[in-house]
Amino acid sequence: MTMKLLKILSCVALIAVLPACTRGVTSTPGDAPNLEAWVAEVRARPAPPLEPLPVMQQFETFEYSAQVMRDPFSDAWVSAEGSNGTRPDPNRRKEPLEAFPLD
């Protein structure tokens, strides 16, 4: 689609939708009392009865007994061997993306 055709179609769509936005809640001023009567009738109706709340299910309490074990999120248990762990091969051929900095 060319840009000119797209502009024309958007203008036609805007012109077609715009009249729908110009009218109020009612189509004519004579319908307003009819609408007000309907709203008054709906408000005068009794409210439907509410359903009773469901019975809450009782759950057993749980005693957490693993307090003495280590915290999985703490750094206290990092191995001390650090330098003897696995490391990348410094003599390997570098990938093309490794030439760019990370930041």
Automatic annotation (TrEMBL):
Coiled-coil parts of chain: none
- Its signal peptide is 1-22
Asked whether the keyword Signal is assigned, the reply is yes
Q: Which UniProt keywords apply?
A: Signal
Region Disordered, as annotated, extends over 77-103
What is a single Pfam family found in this protein's UniProt entry?
PilP
Q: Is Signal among the key words of this record?
A: yes
Query: What is the protein name for this chain?
Result: Fimbrial protein
Which classification does the entry list for the species? Bacteria, Pseudomonadati, Pseudomonadota, Gammaproteobacteria, Lysobacterales
